[in-house]
Specification:
With 427 residues, this protein is mainly alpha-helical. It is 72% helix and 1% strand. The chain has a two-stranded antiparallel sheet. The protein starts with a helix and ends in a 30-residue tail after the last helix.
Length: 427
């Protein structure tokens, strides 16, 4: 497959993958709070299902993808089964039934993120430049999902899960058009450590990499307050077409994904990630300020939404590219699985759990029959301070690679040069 055709195919893959995610993730909190009547703690746990899926996914990838199935075939299976599971969710009206079904779905979807990234980074000739450009279509997919939800008035309805489920089945079938990426360890004995992606832990011997991983985990804690609470906040303010308006975040995402290679080339990883953390602080300061600022409330909220491109791309995408630069071919798949575990697993679980508890703790007593309200200024201030603390640690302790480092330079992950290591092809 030519590089041009490959980029088009991967871009379409990213579009479908994030259309699925965007069809339910941002609006689920509103559906759970206003339609099913779940409390803050239950909503936080529900968002934590995604994190549980991220922590389960290494077993799928390590036990199945690496040994038995080509990546594109496994993506197809996950897509179809995930779509069927999403279509079951509207039948689950209690937390006891909704929560485990959502965990099952997330265990099927989250592995597609690591598998898709690993497959893309493997086949692209210049991943530092090409991957962000391919990833632009993920933002477009999220935008399309939000617009569709608003057109269907599905933000507070179970319809959102049917939309996502249908898209997931299409995604699964489309995955069969991806370049063939055979299992890396066919016929080989796979250790428990390899199943968990622990090969990548050798990278932690590098002090800067260990600090980077620690800071990525810590920043995820305040970060997930936004994803858990934003839909609930805007619904309480009475915003119409909430899902469509929130897709302005992905418009910003498109712009900064295209700019990301320029920032990485000129500023390097450290400064780029610092800008990303600063954007999170600015986002929460704007949201906290919007609570009492009636005259400029809407501009402050839109500013917080439009910061998304810097918040997400300069942190998550730059972080994934940094990990890819630090790993060699032998451990690149494990390294991508490891950073996914941190960003969408351990960090997300703690962040969503804490967000749910903070939401429940800041509920304002309401008269019987009146809508539930919250102390939003206190809620948005907490993650701002948390992100500021992580920024201080990162600035003082992290030492990034040189700005001029080659985009195809790979560290061995264990201190040895790459040419001294057997590299197993993944395609």
């Amino acid at each position: 497959m030519s590089q041009r055709r490959l980029k088009i195919t991967l871009a379409a893959f990213m579009f479908l993958q994030y259309f699925i995610w965007g069809s339910w993730y941002a609006s689920m909190g509103t559906y759970l709070a206003n339609t099913l009547g779940f409390g803050g703690g239950d909503i936080g746990l529900a968002y934590g299902a995604f994190a549980i899926g991220a922590m389960i996914s290494p077993f799928f990838v390590g036990l199945i993808a690496d040994r038995y199935f080509a990546s594109e075939k496994l993506l197809a299976v996950f897509g179809v089964l995930g779509g069927l599971t999403l279509c079951l969710l509207p039948q689950m009206r209690t937390f006891a039934t909704f929560y485990p079904t959502l965990i099952l779905y997330c265990a099927l979807f989250v592995p597609t993120l690591a598998l898709g990234n690993s497959l893309s980074l493997h086949h692209l000739a210049d991943p530092r430049s090409d991957f962000p450009r391919v990833k632009v279509l993920s933002a477009v997919g999220w935008i399309a999902a939000g617009v569709v939800l608003s057109l269907l008035a599905a933000e507070q309805r179970a319809l959102q899960f049917y939309v996502a489920g249908t898209a997931s089945i299409v995604f699964g079938l489309f995955s069969l058009t991806l370049p063939h990426t055979p299992p890396r360890k066919t016929g080989a004995d796979v250790t428990f450590g390899e199943v968990l992606g622990l090969d990548a832990l050798a990278l932690l011997r590098k002090p800067s990499f260990a600090i980077f991983i620690g800071c990525m985990f810590l920043i995820c804690i305040p970060l997930y307050f936004y994803f858990v609470m934003m839909g609930i906040y805007l619904t309480e303010l009475g915003w119409a077409n909430m899902a469509a308006k929130m897709t302005l975040a992905q418009v910003s995402d498109v712009i900064f994904l295209l700019l990301l290679p320029v920032f990485l080339k000129t500023l390097g990883y450290k400064t780029t990630i610092v800008i990303g953390i600063l954007a999170w602080i600015g986002r929460y300061v704007a949201l906290a300020g919007s609570v009492q600022s009636v005259g400029v409330q809407a501009p402050l909220i839109f500013a917080a939404i439009l910061l998304h491109g810097v918040c997400y791309d300069f942190l998550f995408i730059a972080g994934q590219l940094y990990v890819d630069d630090q790993a060699n071919d032998r451990i690149r798949g494990a390294a991508q699985g490891f950073i996914a575990f941190i960003l969408w697993g351990a960090g997300a679980f703690v962040g969503t759990l804490l967000a749910g508890r903070v939401l429940a703790a800041h509920q304002v007593p309401a008269l019987p029959g009146e809508p539930v309200t919250y102390d939003w200024q206190a809620i948005w201030s907490l993650p701002a301070w948390g992100a500021a603390a992580v920024l201080a640690v990162f600035v003082l302790c992290f030492r990034g690679p040189a700005v001029s480092a080659s985009p195809r330079h790979r560290g061995s992950g264990d201190g040895a040069p790459d040419h001294a290591r057997p590299v197993q092809s993944r395609g």
